[in-house]
Amino acid sequence: MLEAEFHDGEVTWFQGGMLNVAFNCLDRHLPEKAEDTAIIWEADEPSESRHITYRELKWEAARLGNVLKNLGVRKGDRVIIYLPMIPELAYAMLACARIGAVHSVVFAGFSATSLRDRVLDCGATVVITANEGRRGGKAIPLKAIVDDAVTGIDSVKSVLVAKRTATEVPMHFGRDIWLEEAMLNERGTCPCEWMSAEDPLFILYTSGSTGKPKGLLHTQAGYLLYASLTHKIVFDYHPGDIYACVADVGWITGHSYIIYGPLCNGATTLMFESTPLYPNPGRYWDLVERHRVNSFYTSPTAIRSLAREGNEWVKKYDRSSLRILGTVGEPINPEAWKWYFDVVGEGKCPVVDTWWQTETGGIMVTPLPGVTALKPGSATLPFFGVSLSVTDENGNCMQGNGIAGHLCIERPWPGMARTIHGDHKRFREMYFVQYKGKYFTGDGCRRDEDGYYWITGRVDDVINVAGHRLGTAEIESSLAGNHLVAEAAVVGIPHEIKGTAIFAFIVPQKEAERMTREELMGALKEHVRHDISPIASPEQVLSVPALPKTRSGKIMRRILSKIAVGNYTELGNVTTLQDPAVVEQIIAEHKKLG
Ligand code: 7RM
After folding, report:
1. What is the position in ligand 1's atom list of the atom closest to the CA of 365?
2. pLDDT tens-digit series, residues 35-44
């Protein structure tokens, strides 16, 4: 079953087994569930929703699979999916799985540059997008972004365009194809490509502590088993239940707990196109009432932003269908946890605070609803078969309870990523070398007197903003790419809603001198928004004469993190700095912010 050299980042599960993921998510259910709802699609406007049965879902995925095959897509070829939260996104992923193509979904909030980097890195031949996206009443010009992203990339032969809105978009002759028209000509049967257990299923890009986002590669059998098992157990899924995860499929949460886990279990899963605040802060609970949702899964940031709007928005709606409430993406503070438990769940629904990562493929630390005694703010205990350890900075395993350190995983599990696409060396060095024989998560944690885990956040150069992972290196290189900036360093600062926000220190170029502080800050926020994504845009930008660097030229972010929150006195050892005087200059600039 398992064959691994874990210390070397080499892991295989179920080698020799054959399967097709789309078959397991669709065809396998048809004898009993053809007319059951597979997906409830809730559109941006609350007045619009659609039920898609297992029969329809299989039909659409098969037709889209045939379209891809006609475009020359074969087993192992990469397809980029840049779609909003519309049913075509599910069709596209399942179509790829059916024909053995490897999908890489790119969150539709990412910029043309970010999309371009991903297309190039994975060498995609086809991009699937929509004319426009809709979110919170606004239009997102997806097709225009794709045009921008793929110009000059020879590997991209075709762009399939779904029609989400009535807006006209330019179509490039010979490259662009309307998805709907192409699908109309295809049959609803498409033979499944039988895949080896360890063939790639998808690549998903995520930020790391250095360089550009890395493409984590997940394989077939282990991933599907782990996503479906955890979905079933953690959300106590029973046939007939309505399950809603309101994340975006562009993140791993959507892959595992909107698409693959629930569909493999024959569940009814909801796809939500909108935001928690549109058209008002009652949207989630309106959705729960209308669809009689039994399990609801969201992020701490969403919970905090709703708690602040008052309890009336919750109370207005009938939530009696709810049985289990889940959270994921970042640490949840006990106040937000209690609000979720008391106000949303009226003290009747266990809150499952689930800790996991893009790399882990599925939930690793979580309460089991109705089984585990809960503690607000703790992800509690490891899932079946998961063995955790807490290490000190030197990699020594810490024994006993009442300790804090770095969170590691001791043994391989089926859902883990197998490599970084095109860079296995980086995969090994990133996760398996630092703490010999263990997988290093990048997170800090505490194990309390009862053995419960409390995840305290990243201990590497990754910042988690509103549940989204961002690398300091990515944001810094984006800022430094602007003509107004000579050098940049970013750190995370506590934020009431987002958990953490980005604070950028920049050394301006001469040209920036005639700009006011506001103008410069505005220009740079806009730059990052456009260059990476709105989620990466800094909360604050501070011009400083120089950055604190060690003699070997490394930026000392530790010092900047303290200054950013106005803590000027506990900066620690500054004697290793090239020029200790810059610290005083930076403090002086920070004080001007007031
Ligand atoms: C699923 C997902 C992973 C990082 C991870 C943590 C943080 C996620 C929790 C959490 C505290 C949680 N994948 N994180 N869940 N921290 N409690 N329940 O979010 O790859 O995008 O991010 O998110 O820092 O390392 S991710």
Report:
1. 18
2. 999 999 999 9
